[in-house]
């Protein structure tokens, strides 16, 4: 029987040692516990037939995620973040952002083990300053210099178009950069995630998708949405193993057109049913090795969830935001499941470099990534 230690902070199971291999917390190596069959720990000998069998024969979980967080502790983190951000004239914002993400991931469990987050506020602050110099300053100068210099109308129009172009290019770059950075700083069982999608390939996909959606009066949107999601999934890795996506956007087109037709008769409420269908479609066509995801959410459940969150935010004037975030993760964990064997023995670490330059600004343009 293999013995190991579970970190009380991040929940990572590992072989006995002085410090956690994920978060660095000091451990007590004198009190190891038995590791249940199928749980893979850093340093475990996976080359032996016994350990390989125990890992690959692990029974698939009925539910994929378990979220243990609560609104109270998250509200405490938010309150401290707001106070320190005001006192430091905004500088602490980046450390506060890391604390929130760290809490949410550390409270999220898959098959008995919790995620760990390795980003730092210093990384985000430096990345923010770089992003301001690269994107914000040039676009700002293009908007203000023609006015200050008293140039003609043609020059002003040209510089405004150029500034708008910079912003439109920045949005897909921010989406890719945010995913690349956050994945590189997230781990489970000591193995990092990574995103390896080429930035300019997504910029072209995004620009072409926006253009076709505009000239087709929105009809192309399901294809654009599916191809964008497929790009993110198919270039995402856990260790050396990629995720796969095999969905065809035509499966969404009929439901999308129906949602357009029913917008006025249902006062827009039918879009919750379309959103439920889209999320089920995306997840049921996403796989990892021989395991496939399942997301059994319904349109009615989404409507109740989103309207409930809106009511909470309106009644509390936004104070309930931490509870809304916690509600979301509990909601996702209720419906998300994984079907098939999860082979963790063959996964190896493959560290990828990622910069915080674009991640630091992604939140300001809504260019992060989300579940479903």
Structure write-up:
By secondary structure, the chain is an alpha+beta fold. The protein has helices at residues 49-56, 71-87, 93-106, 121-149, 153-184, 199-215, 221-234, 250-261, 270-284, 299-315, 321-335, 359-362, and strands spanning 3-6, 13-14, 33-34, 66-67, 108-110, 113-117, 186-188, 191-195, 236-238, 241-245, 286-288, 291-295, 336-339. Helix 2 packs across helix 11. The longest helix is centred in the middle third of the chain and has 32 residues, at 153-184.
Helices, strands, pairings?
Blueprint: E1 3-6, E2 13-14, E3 33-34, H1 49-56, E4 66-67, H2 71-87, H3 93-106, E5 108-110, E6 113-117, H4 121-149, H5 153-184, E7 186-188, E8 191-195, H6 199-215, H7 221-234, E9 236-238, E10 241-245, H8 250-261, H9 270-284, E11 286-288, E12 291-295, H10 299-315, H11 321-335, E13 336-339, H12 359-362
Antiparallel strand pairs: 1-2, 1-3, 4-5, 5-6, 6-7, 7-8, 8-9, 9-10, 10-11, 11-12, 12-13
Key terms for this structure?
13 strands, 12 helices, 372 residues, alpha+beta
Biggest sheet: strand arrangement: 4-5-6-7-8-9-10-11-12-13
Which whole number gives the mean pLDDT? 81
What structural category do the secondary elements indicate? alpha+beta
Query: What's the multimeric state?
Result: single chain
The sequence of SSEs as H and E is EEEHEHHEEHHEEHHEEHHEEHHEH
Portion of residues within helices: 40-55%
How much of the sequence is in beta strands? 5-15%
Number of domains: 1
Radius of gyration: 23 Å
Instruction: Give the N-terminus to C-terminus distance in angstroms.
Output: 39 Å
